[in-house]
Amino acid sequence: MALRGPKVWLWRWRRNPLKRRADRVEAWVVLGVWTLTVLAGGLAGTTVSRSVEDGLARERVEWRPLVARLAERAPGTATENARVSRAEHVWATARWTAADGSRHSGQLRVPAGSAAGTPVTVWTDAEGRQVTRPVTETQARVRALLIGGVAGLGGAVVPLVAGRALRSRLECRRIDRWDAEWARFGPMWGRTTG
């Protein structure tokens, strides 16, 4: 294990007569990468979060519940329903008429054993197509924050990886220069003057 001295904050920016041009370039690269990482992550996260929340708010405004009627008896019987569970739901076909007068049908979850013609609620979009129930404002906010957070992390990774690649390239160039200098001055160390 190597021994290290105390950690010095902002060591890249301190004056030092041994600091090379490559060290100054690397200091600016690190500063730029972290700045871009924070900005890109924040911008991506905020933009995606707002977009998701706006889309979910639009769904809450445009999607409407309609009354549909079961086209056929739902699978299961009343005795089975009482025996298994009162909360058991099954898929059944229902039909409804949209606001524009067009007829639609689709599969809905209904209590087992429901009779044909039983009214059930179906959520539809502006064209009368079946959709899921829109999320509440709280659910939309949580969903937008989660998706925005993931997008922000994804957006922050891009400049971070690019900066790491640039720093690796700078390190390779620095090592190559050290090798060239060592090849030039290393053989002179064994000679004595006089």
TrEMBL record:
Key words of the record: Membrane, Transmembrane, Transmembrane helix
Annotated transmembrane regions: 144-166
Alphabetical list of InterPro entries matching this protein: MT1774/Rv1733c-like (IPR039708)
Protein name: Uncharacterized protein
Originating species: Streptomyces cahuitamycinicus
